[in-house]
Structures are given as C-alpha cells and as structure tokens.
Amino acid sequence: MRDRSGRSGARLDDSVRALAARLPGAERARVEAASARLAGFLSILLEKNADMNLVSARSADPEVLVETHLFDALLGLALLPGPRECAIRLLDLGSGGGFPAIPLLIVRPDLTGTLVESSRKKAAYLDEALGRLALTALVVNARFPGSFPMRTTRYEVLTTRAVASAGKLVRAARPLLAPGARALLWTTRPLTGEAAKASRAKKHAFHLAPGADERGILSLECFT
User: Fold this and answer.
1) Fewer CB atoms < 10 Å away: N or C end of the chain?
2) What is the mean pLDDT of residues 172-192?
3) Which residues lie across from 159 on neighbouring strands?
4) pLDDT, tens digit, for every residue of 24-70?
C-alpha cells in the first residue's frame, strides 16, 4: 500500500524500526516486533486523512507523523501496567485519528480497548482501522461523559491526548476505573497542574517526551 505522500509501506516500516531503536529495551523489542503493523496503521491513517482531516496538513507528512505522533504514543508503553495473564482494559477518550490508543493496542496485544469518539465520521474510520488491523477493541460513538453508556466494565488504564479539560474527564470517568487504575494524559507541562487538580488524583507525575520542551505524559493514580 502507498500513502498519499508516495512513500511505500516498506519505507514507513523502516522509519518505525528506526524509531524503535530510541525506546528503552523492553519497549524497543516489542515495537520492533510490531513495526509492520504500526506502519500499516500509519498507512491507513494517511489513506483516510485527505477525506476527514484526522491530523493537520503538517502532521500528515510521514516524518512528522512518525517522529511526533507515533513516537509520543509509544512513550506510553513504559507507563502501562506490566503484561498479565488476563486482559488489561483500556479506555481512550477523544480517540480522533487513533493516537495513542491504536499504537498501544498494536504493541501490547494483552490490552483490550474501548475508543470513545464523538464524531460519527471519525468513529467509522476508527472502526474500519481496528478491523483492518485485527485489534481487540470497541469504538463508541459518543460524547464523554454525556452520551457514553456508563456500563459496569472497569478499566485499568485511561488514556486521552490533547483533549480540553482532560482532568475533568478523568474525574468524570472515576466510576469506570478499577482499583489501582492509572490515567495517562498526553499534554504539555503548563497544563499539568490544572489537570491533576481537576482529576482529584492523589498521585501524579509528568514525564517529558525526549527532546521536547513542554510535551509529555501526565500520569495520574490513586482515585479512591
């Protein structure tokens, strides 16, 4: 498959493998093993992007897509619970183009995901991408928390990326979080204090992305 930039899937695979070399040991091996599927996800995103603006024009450049969006998503691997015999349930809010949830699901097959997206068109894209990648996940076309069906399912991990009022969303999701759950917010350093306070988490830490000035992941824990 060729994306709209003319770069082949094999070339994207090479870029993902080069990126994997910059990750810590355990995560590096997993990403290298999943590099072809990660490249496949990026190809699907680029294929669909012209029709629905999943990422900005600048981010649609394959180098930017790999070096920022994919790299940032994969930094979350080090903050996930370790592999278990039973599935680890992940709730992703405002899934949009599929970052960070889809890369995490690809690399960690022990995760099962629920991706929440308010846009019907983007939700349809996510559903198609998950099917083409054979991932164990469900897409819910809803605005969280208003129209989201608050089921009895409990999640061990919550993720959200560049979503306004992320801390408040985490607080609203507390009834859905299992004991010991962790929330991971892809955000910037200036927003961490407000987000941590709004979430009412008792423990939080900001993990700066390598080479970034402000961009990183806010980890929140202890919600009870």
Assistant:
1) C
2) 94
3) 92, 184
4) 888 999 999 999 999 999 999 999 998 888 988 888 888 888 988 99
8 Å CB contact between 32 and 22: no
Residues 115 and 18 in one domain: no
Cα 219 to Cα 8: distance, rounded to the nearest angstrom:
36
- 206 and 133 part of one domain: yes
CATH code of the domain covering residue 118: 3.40.50.150
* Token pair of 18 as six digits: 């080069």
Strand order across the beta sheet in which 111-117 lies: 137-141, 111-117, 88-93, 155-161, 177-188, 215-221, 203-208
Please report, as a single letter, which amino acid is at residue 142: A
Measured CA to CA, the distance from residue 65 to residue 112 in angstroms comes to: 24
Number of domains in the chain: 2
Of the candidates 12, 10, 93, the residue with the CA atom closest to the CA atom of residue 46: 12
Considering the domain architecture, whether residues 32 and 87 belong to the same structural domain is answered as no
